[in-house]
Amino acid sequence: MSEPDDTAHTPGEQPPGEDPPAVAGSDAQASSAEAPKEPPPAGDGSAADAARRAEHTAAAAERKIAAAIDPGARAMVVAVAVLVLLLSFTLAHTGTANGWEVLVSADDAGAEAVALPSRVFLTLAVVFGTVMSMLALITRRWVLAWIALAGCALASVFGMLAVWSRQTVSPNLAVAGVGPGLLLGWATVIVLTFHWLKVVWGRTVAQMDAEHERRRRAADAEQYGDGNAGPGNAGPGGFTPRLK
After folding, report:
1. Contact status, residue 95 vs residue 175, Cβ threshold 8 Å
2. Does residue 204 carry a pLDDT above 70?
3. Residue 88: CB partners within 8 Å, gap ≥ 6?
4. DSSP of 181-230
5. Which of 4, 63, 94, 183 has the fewest Cβ atoms surrounding its Cβ within 10 A?
């Protein structure tokens, strides 16, 4: 009878001379650990943030253009025109009455039978042609430029009425006709009206461009936020606004 083997094996102990059994999944884990990790694809969150920042930048540019004007070389023309307008007040408006005397209804103006359109014209010329024009040049505020434009345009109309009133005086009145100060003042407010119109119109075009760019940026931000950006979309930052 054969004797039992003295080499007893405890449970879990590997017999000598045999390789340990392979653990399931160990090779896959090792290969995955050795393989270099690829960076995760960029998500839609970063693109949406960039689009929102671009939208805020375009909105800030639109607000800046909406509040300010840039007259450029026209600022010098307007400043010279204001000085010429003030000079016209020192010249004869009609007869011996100059512009200041007509404005305050002095005795010389009463003797010349100055009509109401002349006083209204001079008042508008002082308020809008000089005061508002200088304030608009100094502050560069668009709303002041608009007020100066409207006032100078109205003054141009009353300037025409003032000239007409001096040419249609009753023959029974021994009064003078149109003086050089009235003609110079009327021509000056027409020049101011033209230049303020160009300034305001140029700012309006720039604001329209900025508004269009802001809306485009807002559409990009909404598209990236929804995660529907197509491959053909250049994304945020692909366009530079042409602000004037």
Report:
1. yes
2. no
3. 99, 181, 182, 184, 185, 188
4. HHHHHHHHHHHHHHHHHHHHHHHHHHHHHHHHHHHHHHHHHHHHHHT---
5. 4
pLDDT of 95: 84
Contact 188, 88 (CB under 8 A): yes
Distance CA(11)–CA(13), nearest Å, equals: 6
Alpha-carbon gap, residue 50 to 224, rounded angstroms: 9
Distance between terminal CA atoms of the chain?
A: 112
Helices (H), the chain: 26-34, 44-67, 74-90, 99-103, 107-111, 116-124, 133-139, 142-167, 180-226
How does pLDDT run across 182-195, given as a tens digit for each residue?
999 999 999 999 99
Classify each residue of 97-115 as buried b or exposed e, where b means 16 or more C-beta atoms within 10 Å of its C-beta.
Answer: bbbebbbeeeebbeebbbb
Radius of gyration of the chain (CA): 42
| DSSP tag of 91 | S
User: Smallest Cα–Cα separation from 129: which of 175, 174, 185?
Assistant: 185
Indicate the helix (H) or strand (E) that contains 97.
Answer: strand 97-98
Q: CB under 8 Å to 203, separation ≥6 — which residues?
A: 65, 69, 70, 142, 145
The rounded distance, in Å, linking the Cα atoms of 236 and 48 is 9
Contact between residue 53 and residue 214 where contact means Cβ atoms under 8 Å apart: no
